[in-house]
Amino acid sequence: MPMESITLRSIVARPVLLKLERPVVARIATMTDWPLILIDLHTEEGVVGRSYLEPYAVKSMRYLVPMLQDLGDLLRGHRVEPMELYALARKSLHFVGLQGLSQIAVSGLDMAAWDALARAAGLPLCVLLGGSIGAVKSYNSNGLWLQPPAAVANEAIELMDEGGFTALKLRLGRDRLRDDLATVDAVRAKIGDAVRLMVDFNQGLSLGEALERCHALDDLGLEWIEEPIAYDNLDGFAQLASELKTPIQIGENFYGPGALLEALRRKACDFVMPDFMRIGGVTGWMRAAAIAGTWGIPISTHLYPEVAAHVMRVTETAHWLEWQDWVNPILMKPYVVRDGSLHIPDTPGTGLEWNEDVVSQHLVR
Predict the structure, then answer these.
(1) H helical segments located in 273-315
(2) How many Å separate Cα 49 from the centre of its chain?
(3) Which of the residues 12, 239, 242, 304 has an alpha carbon 20 to 30 A from that of 75?
(4) pTM greater than 0.90 (yes/no)
């Protein structure tokens, strides 16, 4: 059966600010609120594609919302063919640069366009992309920030119980190395050796600190060590990757598939985990995943679990899905996690529907 042709009419972008149940406490920042931009791509045929962006900084929404609305004006009347819309949107921003907020805006458009196309076809996004509905192996990333060791260990039990998780991500980067090591020990004592444990420094270390701390962690059986240094120090990451037995994980700051390719060429990591708002939405992910697959590099997701679950079903070297439920309050039907896996619903597109009562209470005006 031929797929229905749909035409873009407008893009509506709304800024929302939610309160985090577990505040982000990292070495480089503390956040108690979580900004979102809800995107509705309206078509002439009545199909609405939905996506959202998580731009970290509340002030960034002042710029991203008008950019998305401008893209809607630019692309009005075009057929919803995501890869072509992606190319047109990027071309329109060529002179202001194709990274940063430009790429983030285009990524939001792209995810909404893919959702609209799948809804028009009456198919879950993963099926439209050539895959099937199923479970996606996930780890819980909802907490375990820079708190005292005993508090982190107790929270680890809570996170395991939230969905039968057998893998958790722990944040490190306290003032003293011994406090980081004490926290890992406390968590291990609480959860046992069978649970997979990833650690993330959130780019908080200098290269010298990273060399000391990562070597101290190297025999603890960790799944990976994530972003110990600033994301753009590929030479530093290459040194760490060459010296450590524990895999180095980077990628949430890759702006486009080319950045992933450059990191692999430089041998800067063992694993990659692109973020959807930076890699280029679904279109950028599929291109990045093809590169990772060609290199045989395991690829995990960063944030956006609803989109992430669908693309992981069609990703050759799919590794781990990062589960965070920070967007759940504004969703009518949040995705279900059980037995440590995210389960994709049998609904068209990604199935995102906004809880408008909650949205109205948290709109940034």
Answers:
(1) 276-279, 281-295, 305-312
(2) 19
(3) 304
(4) yes
